[in-house]
Design brief:
The complex is a heterotrimer of chains A (415), B (325) and C (294).
Chain A lengths: L6 H13 L4 E6 L4 H16 L3 E6 L6 H12 L6 E4 L1 H9 L7 H7 L1 H4 L2 H6 L1 E2 L2 E2 L1 E8 L2 E4 L1 H7 L7 H13 L3 E3 L5 H13 L3 H8 L4 H4 L2 H13 L12 H9 L3 E5 L3 H8 L9 E4 L7 E10 L5 H15 L1 H11 L15 H16 L2 E3 L9 H16 L5 H15 L1
Parallel strand pairs in A: 1-2, 1-3, 8-9, 11-12
Antiparallel strand pairs in A: 3-11, 4-5, 6-11, 7-9, 7-10
Helix pairs in contact in A: 1-16, 2-17, 8-9, 10-13, 10-19, 13-20, 19-20
Chain B lengths: L10 H14 L14 H31 L16 H7 L2 H32 L6 H9 L6 H12 L5 H7 L16 H27 L2 H9 L4 H12 L1 H17 L2 H6 L11 H11 L3 H32 L1
Helix pairs in contact in B: 1-11, 2-14, 3-14, 4-8, 4-11, 5-8, 8-11, 9-10, 11-14, 13-14
Chain C lengths: L10 H34 L2 H6 L12 H8 L11 H31 L5 H11 L8 H11 L5 H24 L4 H9 L4 H12 L1 H17 L2 H6 L7 H9 L8 H36 L1
Helix pairs in contact in C: 1-13, 3-13, 4-7, 4-10, 4-12, 7-10, 10-13, 12-13
Classes of the chains: A alpha/beta (415), B mainly alpha (325), C mainly alpha (294).
Chain lengths: 415, 325, 294
C-alpha cells in the first residue's frame, strides 16, 4: 500500500528543485480571521522572496467545511492544490488514498526528527514518511478574560468550574455577559472539551481517544454534562450562530468577561492592539492548569505534476520549519511554534506559559489531542460527538443522563 | 461556513404554467411528414444531442452513481465496498436525520401554505388598478433576485433577539415584547419559514398576477352583468380559472422547500443544536464535512424519492392528459 | 381587466376600502424592503454608529468609504483587493453561461415542440425530472468529469457546469412557450423549402422575445447568485463574487466591519437587482404572454 512517492523519485525531485527555481504554490486554507490572515501573509512573503509565486486560495468558514469541500472536489478532479490546511487524523486518510507527496528529503536536510516533538511529527507522517509541515501548536484549553470587567463586577478569576459558575453569576449580576460564546457546534464542543479535561487526562483520553463506552457512560461524564448545561445560562441571548472572533471582540470591547477558546483568540487581541496582562489576561480553562489540549495546523503537501510546482512545494515545506517563519507566524496567530528550542524573547507571557505547559505536560501524560478540533478521533466520531453536545447545550429539556446515553450510542454507531 | 445555493427552484414553474396552457391549445399530436431523408431530418436530433448527452451523463449517470454509493461503506472518498441497506438503516436510526425530515414537513407545509395565501391575496390586491403598481410589484419581487449569501447577515440581525426586531420593538416602548425564535430549538424552524416566505412569496404573487391578467375579460363582464359582486366574481369565476397556476405554484414551492439549503446555511447553520437542520444540509454535512459519503448518498436518495413522489403523479397526469386530447 | 367599474357600492365605502387596500399593500412593501433597508443603512454608517444605534437608525453622515473599501481594498483572506476582481470573474462566468444555455434551450425547445421525433416527449419528461436533483449530489462526480475534460478549476469549467444544469431549465421555458405555435406553420415553411435553421431564425426567433427575456433574467439571477458550484469548482483566481463575499464577511481584523460587509453584499447583489428593477416589467410581461395568452 505504498502509494506515496518514495525514495528515488524524491531524490530526483529535490534535484530538479535545485535546477528550476520559481514555481507556483497554490495554498488552500481557511485562515481568514484577522490574526490568521496576517499570519498567512508572512508565509506568502517568505515564498515570494524565495522566488516563487504564491496563489492564495482562501475559503472562509471557521471549521473549514467549505475548504474541505473544495479540497475533495479538487482532489477528485485530479487537480489538487500544492498544499492544503488539514488536520491530524485526516492526514492519514488522505495518505491512504495516495494523494500526499513525500517530504522526507526536506525533513532529512532540515533535521525534522530532532526539531519536532514526537506528538507533532507522528501526526504529520504517513507510514513513516513526512507528508505535511506543521505551522504551529495551538493550546485549546485557554480562558481569556477582560480584567476591567472582572474588576467592575467584583469577581475573581476562577480556577475550578464550580468557582467559575459562582464568579460568572456575579458578573451577570453586574450587567455584563459572563461568557462570550458563539452557538456553533465546534464552539460548543470546545467548551465541552475544556470541562471534560477538568476530570483528568485519563478520563479525557478514555472518553475521546479510546472511546471507551464505560467512561462515556460514567458518572464523571454526567457531571461534565451537568456543568456544561449550567453554562448555557451564562451566555447572552444573541449567541446563536455567532462566529468565534465576534465572541472574542465582545471580550475585547468589555461587553463580556470571559471566553473559553483556543489561543487563536489571542491573535484577535493582538490584531486589535491589546496587551496581555494589561488589556486582557490568559489563564488555563478552569481545572486544566497542568493539561494541554493540542490542535496543530498542518499544511499537507499534495502530489502535483509540474516540476516547478514540486520544487516550490519542497521549498514551502522547508520555509515553514524555518525559525524565522515559525516565530513570525505564531506571533500573529497566537499559537506557539511547532519546533522546539526556539528563542522565546519575542513571545508574550501567554505564549510562554503555553510553551512551558507543552513541555511539562508531554512528560506527565497530560498532553492530550483536542476532540473539538479533530485531533483525537476521525471526522465521523467527531461529528457524532458534536451532534450530541450541541443538541444538549441547546435543548432545555434534555437531561445529562439522556445526553450520556445518546453520546455512547452515537459514538458506537459511527465507529 | 455560510452556505450556498441559490434557489435552484423554479425551473419547473414556467413549465407548469405553460404546460397548462398548452393543453388548451389545439394542436394535432401526430404529425404526418415523411419527405425524403435529408440533413434537415437529422438536424433536430443533432441539435438535441449535446443536451441529451449531458442529461444522461450529468443527471442520470450521477444519480445512479449516488444510488450505488448509498449501498457502499464509502467514507472520505467513494469506494465500492457494498454493505447492502446498512446506510439506510443508520440513516433512519440517526436522530439528526429524523429532525431534518420532520423539519422539512413543518417548514415545507407552512412555507407552501403561507406563500400561496400571500401570493393570491397580494396578486388580487395589486390587480385593483393600483397606482405605482410597477414599483410595488418590483418591491415584492426583488427578494427573488438576491441570494441568502447576500441577505444572510441582515436576516440574522433581524431575527437576533439582542439587536434585531426584538430590540427594535422594545425600544419603541413595548418592553415585554419577545422574539427569540432564532435561539429557541422549538421555534427556530419558523424563522426559516419567515425568511423563505419573504424570498418566494413575491414570486408566487407574480405568477398569480400573470394568471389574473390572463383571465378572459368577457367572463368577468358577464358575471358583473349578472349582478355578481366583486367578491363573488373572484370566488366563483376568477379563482377557479387560476387552478392551473395554483397547481404549478404548489409544485414549484414543494421543490423549493425540498431543495432549501442556502437558507439554513446562512441563517442558522442548523442550530441551535441541530434543531433547524433540513435534509439538504444534512446531506452536505455528512458527505463533505464528516466523510460519510455512503450515509450522505443514502440521504440524497431519500430526498430524490421525495421529489419523485411529488413529480411522478404530476408528470403522469400531464402526459396522460395530453394523450386524451 | 379589473372590475370596480360596473358594480359600485357607495362611494364612501369604496374609498375606505381603497385606503385599506393601499395600507395593506404598502405595509407589505415595507416588510419586503426591511432586510435590504437594514443592509443599506448599515453600509452607510461607521462602526461606532452601528454599535450604538439600532438597526433602523439613520446614519448621521452620508459616507461611502465602506463602499469604496468593499470594492477595492477590503481583505478576503490574505489578498486585499476588495471584491472588484471577483466581480469581473462573475461576469466572465455568467455572460457565456447565460448565452449558451439560452441558445441551447431555445433550440431544444424548438425541436421538442415543433420537430417532434420518437422519444422526444419522453426525453422532455426525463429532463424535467433531472433538474430536480439536489445539486449537492453532483459535486463529486462533476469534479471528476471536469478533471477528465481538463477544465477543472477554470472559468470554462464553471461555464460548463452552469450550462449543463441550466439547460434543463431553459429548455423547459422555451418548450412551453413554443407549444402554442401551430405546427402547421413549420410544415408550411418546410414545403416552401425552408430548412431547420432558416425556420428557427426567420419565424421562431422573432416571436420569442418575451420568453428570451424571461429566460435570460432567470438564468442571469441563478448563475450570478450561485455559491455551491462557485466554491467547489473555481480555482484561486476564478472565484465568483459570491464566494469572495463569503470570504470577505468571514475575514475580520479585531472587530467586524459590518458596514464594509454590508456594502460588499449590496455590491454583489447589484447586477441581479438592476436586472430585476430595470427588466422586471418585461419579466412579468413575458410571464403573462407565455403563461396565459400565448
Amino acid at each position: 500500500m505504498k502509494k506515496i512517492a518514495l525514495g528515488l523519485t524524491t531524490v530526483a525531485l529535490s534535484l530538479s528543485a535545485a535546477i528550476s527555481h520559481a514555481g507556483d504554490v497554490e495554498v488552500l486554507h481557511y485562515w481568514t480571521s484577522g490574526g490568521e490572515a496576517a499570519s498567512v501573509e508572512v508565509l506568502k512573503q517568505e515564498m515570494v522572496s524565495a522566488g516563487h509565486n504564491w496563489r492564495d486560495f482562501a475559503v472562509a468558514g471557521g471549521g473549514g467545511e467549505s475548504a474541505m469541500t473544495v479540497l475533495k472536489s479538487r482532489a477528485i478532479a485530479g487537480n489538487p492544490p500544492t498544499a492544503a490546511q488539514i488536520k491530524g487524523p485526516t492526514i492519514q486518510e488522505w495518505g491512504d488514498l495516495g494523494f500526499l507527496s513525500n517530504l522526507d528529503s526536506v525533513a532529512k536536510a532540515g533535521n525534522w526528527d530532532s526539531l519536532l516533538p514526537d506528538v507533532v511529527s507522528n501526526a504529520m507522517k504517513y507510514e513513516g514518511h513526512y507528508v505535511a509541515a506543521p505551522v504551529n501548536v495551538h493550546r485549546v484549553n485557554w480562558m481569556w478574560a477582560n480584567p476591567e470587567v472582572f474588576k467592575k463586577a467584583g469577581a475573581s478569576i476562577p480556577t475550578t468550574w464550580e468557582q467559575f459558575i459562582v464568579e460568572a453569576k456575579k458578573i451577570k449580576a453586574a450587567g455584563f455577559t459572563p461568557l462570550a460564546h458563539g452557538g456553533q457546534a465546534w464552539q460548543d464542543a470546545t467548551l465541552f472539551e475544556s470541562i471534560a479535561m477538568a476530570q483528568g487526562s485519563k478520563f479525557y483520553n478514555d472518553a475521546f481517544v479510546e472511546l471507551s463506552e464505560q467512561t462515556l457512560r460514567s458518572d464523571e461524564m454526567i457531571s461534565v454534562f451537568d456543568t456544561f448545561k449550567q453554562l448555557r445560562d451564562l451566555v447572552d441571548p444573541g449567541f446563536s450562530g455567532r462566529d468565534w472572533n465576534i465572541a472574542t471582540s465582545m471580550v475585547i470591547n468589555g461587553d463580556a468577561a470571559i471566553q473559553i477558546m483556543g489561543d487563536w483568540a489571542k491573535g484577535e487581541f493582538t490584531a486589535a492592539g491589546k496587551q496581555p496582562g494589561i488589556d486582557y489576561v490568559c489563564y488555563p480553562a478552569p481545572g486544566t492548569s497542568g493539561s494541554f489540549s493540542f490542535n496543530i495546523d498542518f499544511l499537507a503537501m499534495f502530489n502535483v505534476k509540474e516540476a516547478g510546482q514540486q520544487a516550490a512545494q519542497q521549498d514551502l515545506a522547508r520555509l515553514i520549519l524555518e525559525p524565522k517563519f515559525q516565530e513570525t507566524f505564531n506571533l500573529n496567530k497566537g499559537s506557539i511554534p511547532a519546533r522546539l528550542n526556539m528563542p522565546r524573547d519575542q513571545f508574550d507571557s501567554c505564549a510562554h506559559s503555553s510553551m512551558d505547559a507543552f513541555l511539562a505536560s508531554s512528560s506527565t501524560g497530560d498532553l492530550v489531542p483536542s476532540m473539538a478540533h479533530g485531533m483525537a478521533a476521525n471526522s465521523m466520531v467527531q461529528g457524532a460527538i458534536y451532534d450530541v453536545v450541541t443538541n444538549f447545550f441547546n435543548s432545555p429539556s434534555m437531561t445529562s443522563q439522556e445526553a450520556v446515553d445518546k453520546l455512547a450510542r452515537a459514538i458506537k454507531a459511527s465507529m | 461556513m455560510v452556505g450556498l445555493f441559490v434557489f435552484p427552484c423554479s425551473d419547473s414553474f414556467y413549465s407548469e404554467v405553460f404546460i397548462m396552457k398548452s393543453q388548451n391549445s389545439l394542436r394535432p399530436t401526430s404529425v404526418q411528414r415523411k419527405p425524403k431523408q435529408t440533413l434537415a431530418d437529422w438536424m433536430p436530433k443533432i441539435v438535441m444531442a449535446p443536451t441529451f448527452i449531458v442529461t444522461v451523463v450529468c443527471m442520470y449517470g450521477y444519480m445512479v452513481w449516488t444510488g450505488i454509493l448509498s449501498f457502499t461503506s464509502s467514507r472520505m472518498l467513494p469506494s465500492y465496498n457494498f454493505v447492502g441497506f446498512d446506510q439506510y438503516e443508520r440513516l433512519f436510526n440517526n436522530d439528526r436525520w429524523i429532525v431534518a425530515l420532520s423539519n422539512l414537513g413543518v417548514f415545507g407545509g407552512l412555507f407552501i401554505v403561507i406563500c400561496l395565501f400571500l401570493g393570491v391575496v397580494l396578486a388580487i390586491f395589486l390587480d385593483q388598478k393600483i397606482r405605482a403598481e410597477g414599483a410595488i410589484r418590483t418591491i415584492y419581487l426583488y427578494p427573488m433576485a438576491i441570494s441568502f449569501i447576500v441577505t444572510g447577515t441582515a436576516w440574522k440581525w433581524l431575527l437576533n433577539p439582542t439587536n434585531g426586531l426584538e430590540k427594535l420593538v422594545v425600544d419603541m416602548g413595548f418592553e415585554d415584547f419577545k422574539f427569540d425564535w432564532l435561539i429557541n430549538p422549538d421555534m427556530v424552524v419558523y424563522c426559516l419559514v419567515i425568511a423563505a416566505v419573504w424570498q418566494a412569496s413575491g414570486f408566487v404573487m407574480a405568477l398569480f398576477l400573470a394568471g389574473l391578467r390572463g383571465v378572459d375579460g368577457d367572463l368577468i363582464k358577464a358575471a358583473h352583468l349578472d349582478g355578481a359582486s366583486t367578491f363573488t366574481t373572484y370566488r366563483r369565476i376568477i379563482l377557479p380559472s387560476l387552478k392551473p397556476v395554483f397547481f404549478s405554484a404548489l409544485v414549484i414551492l414543494s421543490h423549493i422547500a425540498i431543495k432549501s439549503f442556502d437558507l439554513v446555511a446562512a441563517l442558522t447553520n442548523g442550530g441551535p443544536g441541530y434543531s433547524s437542520d433540513l435534509p439538504a444540509n444534512f446531506m452536505y454535512a455528512h458527505t463533505f464535512t464528516r466523510s460519510q459519503i455512503g450515509l450522505g448518498s443514502a440521504s440524497a436518495m431519500v430526498m430524490l424519492g421525495c421529489v419523485l413522489a411529488i413529480l411522478v403523479p404530476y408528470l403522469y397526469s400531464e402526459l396522460r392528459g395530453k394523450r386524451h386530447e | 381587466m379589473s372590475n370596480q367599474t360596473i358594480k359600485q357600492p357607495s362611494k364612501v365605502l369604496n374609498n375606505v376600502l381603497r385606503i385599506a387596500l393601499y395600507t395593506v399593500l404598502l405595509t407589505m412593501a415595507a416588510i419586503y424592503l426591511m432586510p435590504f433597508v437594514v443592509m443599506l443603512l448599515t453600509s452607510l454608517k461607521d462602526v461606532e454608529e452601528i454599535r450604538s444605534g439600532t438597526l433602523l437608525s439613520l446614519p448621521s453622515t452620508l459616507g461611502f468609504e465602506s463602499w469604496q473599501k468593499a470594492w477595492s481594498s477590503a481583505c478576503t483572506g490574505s489578498s486585499c483587493e476588495g471584491i472588484s476582481p471577483y466581480f469581473l470573474n462573475s461576469f466572465q462566468i455568467v455572460l457565456p453561461a447565460v448565452a449558451i444555455s439560452t441558445l441551447l434551450g431555445a433550440l431544444n425547445g424548438y425541436v421538442i415542440s415543433l420537430w417532434k421525433f420518437k422519444g422526444s416527449d419522453l426525453f422532455f419528461a426525463a429532463l424535467l425530472i433531472g433538474c430536480f436533483i439536489p445539486f449537492q449530489v453532483i459535486l463529486l462526480p462533476m469534479a471528476r468529469t471536469l478533471g477528465w475534460l481538463g477544465i477543472a478549476n477554470t472559468t470554462t469549467g464553471l461555464v460548463f457546469v452552469h450550462v449543463v444544469y441550466g439547460v434543463a431549465f431553459t429548455t423547459l421555458f422555451f418548450r412551453n412557450f413554443y407549444q402554442s405555435i401551430p405546427e402547421e406553420l413549420v410544415k408550411a415553411a418546410r414545403l416552401d423549402g425552408a430548412g431547420f435553421f432558416t425556420i428557427f431564425y426567420r419565424i421562431i426567433l422573432p416571436v420569442s422575445i418575451p420568453i428570451i427575456v424571461v429566460t435570460v433574467i432567470w438564468q442571469f439571477t441563478q448563475i450570478w447568485n450561485d455559491f455551491l458550484f462557485g466554491v467547489a469548482f473555481s480555482g484561486f483566481d476564478t472565484q465568483p463574487v459570491t464566494v469572495a463575499l463569503n470570504n470577505l464577511v468571514n475575514t475580520s481584523f479585531g472587530g467586524k466591519e459590518y458596514n464594509v460587509d454590508m456594502a460588499a453584499a449590496i455590491i454583489a447583489a447589484l447586477p441581479t437587482l438592476a436586472v430585476y428593477v430595470l427588466a422586471g416589467k418585461y419579466f412579468v410581461r413575458g410571464l403573462t404572454a407565455g403563461a396565459v395568452k400565448g
